[in-house]
Design brief:
By secondary structure, the protein is α/β, with parallel strands linked by helices. Helix content is about 65%, strand content about 10%. A four-stranded mixed sheet has the order 1-2-3-4, sandwiched between helices.
Length: about 210
C-alpha cells in the first residue's frame, strides 16, 4: 500500500510543474499575439454598445457618423458591426470572421490601416457578400462604404424568368387547351352516337 501511494505521488505533477506549464502557455499566447494587436473577443465586447470600434489613434473614421449608419442598418434588420483596428491579426479578413464569431452580428466590416475593406457575414447573406463588399470598396469615404455595403447586402435581386422558360410555359398551356378541347369533343361525339343507337333500338323494338 505504501509503495502504491508513493507511485501515485510521483505520477501526479507537482505544484512547481504546474506553474511551469502555465508559464509556458502564457508565453505562447504572448508570442502568437503581437504587441498592440487587438483581441477579437475584447473588440466584440466593445461592439455591444453601439456596434462600432475605432482603435486609439485612428482618425480616418468618423465614429459618430458610422454609429448612425449602423443604427440605420439595424433598423432595416441587419445586425452590423464595424471595426477599425490598428493591427488586425492575422489579417483583416480573418479578423472580421473572428469578430463575427465572437459577437451576435449578421455582418462584420473591418477597416484596416493598410489594404482594402474586408467583411464577413453569416450564411444567410453569403450569396450577396461579394457584391456588397465590392460596393463598399468602391467608396473612399468609410461612412459611404458602410452604407453602400448595407444597401447591396439587403437588396433583393430581381427574379426574371428567362425567355425560353416563358416559351415552354406557353407551349404547355396551349397543349393543355388543345387536350381539353379534344376530350370535350370526344365526350360530345360519344353522347351523339349513343343517342343515335338508342333511337334505332327503339324503332326496331316497335
Amino acid at each position: 500500500m505504501g509503495r502504491l501511494r508513493r507511485r501515485r505521488a510521483r505520477e501526479r505533477p507537482s505544484l512547481c510543474q504546474r506553474a511551469v506549464v502555465g508559464l509556458v502557455a502564457a508565453l505562447l499566447v504572448l508570442i502568437a499575439t503581437p504587441a498592440g494587436a487587438e483581441s477579437p473577443v475584447e473588440v466584440a465586447e466593445d461592439l455591444a454598445v453601439d456596434g462600432v470600434f475605432v482603435a486609439p489613434g485612428r482618425t480616418d473614421l468618423d465614429e459618430v457618423a458610422i454609429a448612425e449608419s449602423i443604427r440605420q442598418a439595424r433598423a432595416r434588420g441587419l445586425r452590423l458591426v464595424v471595426v477599425a483596428p490598428n493591427d488586425p491579426q492575422p489579417d483583416a479578413s480573418a479578423f472580421a470572421r473572428r469578430v463575427l464569431e465572437a459577437s451576435d452580428a449578421d455582418a462584420a466590416l473591418v477597416f484596416p490601416t493598410e489594404g482594402g475593406l474586408e467583411a464577413h457575414v453569416i450564411d444567410e447573406f453569403d450569396s450577396a457578400s461579394l457584391r456588397a463588399l465590392g460596393a463598399g470598396r468602391s467608396k473612399s469615404n468609410p461612412v459611404a462604404a458602410v452604407e453602400a455595403f448595407t444597401d447591396e447586402l439587403l437588396v433583393q435581386p430581381a427574379t426574371s424568368v428567362p425567355p425560353i422558360v416563358g416559351q415552354v410555359l406557353r407551349i404547355v398551356l396551349l397543349l393543355a387547351v388543345v387536350l381539353a378541347g379534344a376530350v370535350a369533343i370526344e365526350q360530345l361525339l360519344r353522347r351523339m352516337f349513343g343517342r343515335g343507337r338508342s333511337v334505332r333500338a327503339d324503332h326496331r323494338a316497335t
